[in-house]
Write a structure and sequence with these properties.
Layout (H helix, E strand, L loop, with lengths): L31 E5 L10 E4 L5 E3 L5 E2 L7 E8 L6 E7 L5 E5 L10 E2 L6 E2 L7 E4 L1 H8 L7 H5 L4 E5 L7 E5 L7 E5 L22 E8 L3 H4 L6 E7 L7 E9 L5 E10 L3 E12 L14 E16 L2 E17 L1 H4 L10 E18 L4 E18 L2 E19 L3 E17 L6 E16 L4 E12 L3 E13 L4 E12 L6 H4 L16 E17 L2 E15 L2 E5 L5 E5 L4 E14 L3 E14 L14 E11 L3 E10 L13 E12 L2 E8 L6 H4 L3 E2 L6 E2 L10 E9 L1
Parallel strand pairs: 1-7, 13-15
Antiparallel strand pairs: 1-4, 2-3, 2-5, 5-6, 8-9, 10-14, 11-12, 14-15, 16-17, 16-41, 17-18, 18-19, 19-20, 20-21, 21-22, 22-23, 23-24, 24-25, 25-26, 26-27, 27-28, 28-29, 29-30, 30-33, 31-32, 33-34, 34-35, 35-36, 36-37, 37-38, 38-41, 39-40
Length: 727
């Protein structure tokens, strides 16, 4: 199996200087071939040197090393490669035939990154669509910071913004390329069960402990997943059981209100049956950092139970059945009300009580070595109630998703043909005039990955969706990958997208949907087109230093954007704007790895997103034009981890046109491993960056408060620590 360290082939580019020797009889035409011990693959770029001299060379594209000017006689070879244990071997020169040396991978190796979001489960370096993968190692690190949800995983990723939508309840949504959260499709194991009304608390309802990988597509991705994948797709991929039993547990305690999190993951399989089980719960006390009597972190109680069962019917047939249920109660607002001491001056509160249940089934059948079909079915129910003084909103959303796909892997083609049906129904409860939203969507799609040559790979797709209310949508998409040389590659992609009208947006979420009118019959679907272009460079600069640079440019235009307006009687309604929203910019990512245990990451995002329908300042609100994220990590496997992180956010435009303050935030984490047990400590935002240090956030009287828009941390610095167990 290829290792990720070999994703881009290293060429014979770097060599040691050669020693001069009076005896050239040791010149050998035979070479040394370096291979992986387990897979027998050639290790291109491996280094072979004569110990105690400056004679050495790196393996060429065939994994072969030719040493020149080696004196005749016995010498000690030093064979090394990043991700592998260095080996020394006595060899007599001149060589009479090729010598094969096998290196054993060490525990620092990075596993092959195989992505499933494009449905063909290919190595990431052979997919024309630009996909970012957050590995199990990174998930493990971020779980130390937020063990009960995935918000930290995305918050610290380049080009992604986690936007807080409520000051007192800390609800959040996700933005990609500066676009509203409704334009990002959130998947769990390829199933789109977090849309519409249920998207409001989605990031807070997904614990990270059972995740194997997170896959992110930025830009149009509607061919396989339909409406809503305009800004991108985030797919949370769960672990599957192995024959060796896995037990992982984490207990965490925070300084902000004394929150406690406990998560446990268990998995095991035999030849016929396997299972995974995730149990996660948290208790959070209310936290008022600035003592203004309003919570920055609400009182909350969360519980998630997620069992999955795997049936290996035979070598070619597999059935997966799972059910996830999440209970969440959040109580924010005036601390007097929360503690049961409400009076005439202390009356404000915000409650969020929700239940989310997702049942899913996946049945796959391998027809031959090159053909497979997959059937997926999910049924989700989301029941949420929001309460504030003198107002209560409760609704239930039911979503059913059915998908059938047929996959053909030929010599140079990987073809996916499929169809799906989506039924989505929202109904408001406990209202005199209940608001409803109902959509029934049928779609067919086809996608072909064509390996034209070793250097040129193309992915083309087309989707046709039919909706009873809004008509037919044709969604073509194409991507191309060009491997310029062993170190350099480039991707170009683009496609169309659409989003059906809904009242469930960030803007209406901040209003708790109060006085928001149902979607008008005159409303039309939003339609988009977008494109991304990137260049990726990866190289082993030396035996102990590797470098990766990625430069990506993007543009997305959304026509007929649905915007929230207010009328003369104080109600809010959605209507299509005449002019588009246009988001464009670029991302720069740099990664340096030294001696395989010291890593430096740096990411910069420039986003220029404009709502051209506005008469004045057209900049999209609550969006920093410039963002910088940096991280320095030192890690010795099964010993320790220590990391320092820093993030900069530029000024942001508020709805009233005012500019906010730019800010920095810093974090530090330490983890020490003792066999199967790890102890960790995390200092998040230890410089205490928070909005209420820049300006007043809560205005007017306590019983009729008004809140500024949230654009940065509200809770300030946070310390947490805990214990992890892995068996």
């Amino acid at each position: 199996m290829k290792k990720i360290i070999l994703i881009y082939i290293f060429h014979l580019f770097f060599q040691y200087s050669f020693a001069q020797s009076p005896d050239t009889s040791g010149i050998s035409k035979a070479g040394i071939i370096v291979k992986d011990l387990r897979t027998s693959e050639n290790l291109i770029g491996a280094t072979v040197a004569i110990k105690g001299s400056s004679i050495g060379a790196t393996a060429d594209i065939d994994g072969k090393v030719l040493l020149k000017n080696v004196p005749k006689g016995e010498h000690i070879l030093v064979i090394s490669f990043i991700g592998y244990n260095t080996q020394e071997k006595k060899v007599f020169f001149p060589l009479t035939e090729d010598l094969i040396i096998f290196l054993e991978s060490n525990n620092e190796e990075l596993e092959e990154v195989v992505v499933s979001t494009t449905r063909i489960s290919r190595n990431i370096e052979r997919i024309p669509t630009r996909i970012e993968a957050i590995s199990l190692e990174e998930i493990d690190e971020k779980a130390n910071m937020r063990p009960n949800n995935v918000s930290m995983l995305l918050h610290e990723s380049t080009g992604i913004q986690v936007q807080q939508t409520s000051y007192t309840s800390a609800n959040q949504s996700i933005r990609i390329q500066g676009l509203d959260g409704k334009y990002t499709q959130i998947l769990k194991d390829g199933l789109p069960t977090f849309g519409g009304f249920s998207s409001g608390l989605s990031l807070l309802d997904i614990p990270p402990l059972d995740l194997r990988q997170v896959e992110i597509i930025k830009g149009a991705a509607s061919t396989l997943y339909g409406g809503g994948a305009i800004a991108g797709v985030v797919n949370f991929v769960s672990k599957e059981p192995k024959e060796k039993q896995e037990l992982a547990a984490i207990i965490n305690q925070t300084s902000t209100g004394g929150g406690t999190n406990l998560s446990t993951f268990l998995s095991k399989r035999n030849k016929k049956v396997g299972y995974t089980l995730l149990l996660s719960g948290s208790i959070q006390n209310p936290y008022d950092v600035d003592k203004d009597d309003f919570t920055e972190i609400p009182r909350s109680r969360d519980l998630n139970i997620n069992p999955r069962f795997f049936f290996y019917i035979n070598d070619k047939t597999k059935l997966i059945i799972g059910n996830s249920i999440t209970f969440q109660n959040r109580f924010g607002g005036d601390t007097y009300v929360i503690s049961g001491k409400a009076d005439n001056n202390h009356t404000y509160f915000e409650k969020n009580n929700s239940v989310r249940n997702i049942s899913n089934l996946q049945f796959s059948r391998q027809l031959s070595d090159k053909k497979q079909w997959v059937f997926k079915q999910s049924l989700s129910l989301f029941d949420r109630q929001i309460q504030i003084p003198d107002y209560s909103f409760r609704g239930v959303q039911t979503n059913a998703y059915t998908d059938f796909s047929y996959i053909i892997n030929a010599n140079k083609h990987a073809l996916v043909i499929g169809a799906n049906i989506i039924f989505d129904n929202f109904k408001e409860k406990q209202a005199l005039k209940p608001r409803t939203e109902k959509n029934f969507i049928t779609g067919v799609y086809a996608q072909n990955n064509w390996d034209i040559t070793d250097k040129w790979l193309i992915e083309g797709g087309f989707r046709l969706d039919y909706t009873a209310k809004y008509g037919i949508f044709a969604l073509p998409r194409v991507s191309a990958l060009y491997k310029i040389n062993e170190h350099l590659s480039s991707r170009l992609g683009g496609g169309l997208g659409y989003k059906l009208p809904t009242i469930f947006t960030e803007a209406s979420e901040t209003l708790a949907f109060q006085s928001v009118l149902p979607i008008s019959t005159q409303a039309k679907a939003e339609q988009s087109y977008g494109s991304t272009f990137d260049v990726n460079y990866q190289h082993n600069v030396s035996e102990n230093l590797s470098l990766t640079i990625n430069q990506m440019f993007f543009i997305t235009q959304i026509n007929k954007p649905l915007i929230l307006q207010n009328n003369s009687v104080g109600s809010f309604f959605f209507e299509n704007a005449a002019k588009p929203v246009i988001s464009k910019g670029f991302e720069t990512n740099l990664r340096l790895t030294f001696a395989n245990w010291i890593k430096l990451f740096a990411g910069y995002t420039f986003t220029d997103a404009r709502a051209t329908y506005k008469a004045g300042n057209q900049t999209v609100t609550l969006l920093p034009k410039n963002k910088l994220n940096m991280a320095l990590l030192a890690e010795k496997h099964q010993q320790f981890k220590i990391g320092l992180e820093g993030y900069y956010s530029d000024r942001q435009v508020l709805s009233n046109g005012r500019l906010t303050q730019p800010y920095w935030e810093f974090g530090l984490f330490i983890e020490k491993t003792f066999g199967k047990i790890s102890v960790f400590v995390n200092a998040e935002n230890f410089t205490d960056t928070r909005q209420n240090r820049f300006e007043k956030v809560v205005f007017d009287a306590h019983n009729t408060p008004k809140f500024n828009e949230v654009y940065t941390h509200t809770e300030g610095r946070s310390f947490n620590g805990g214990i992890k167990l892995k068996l």
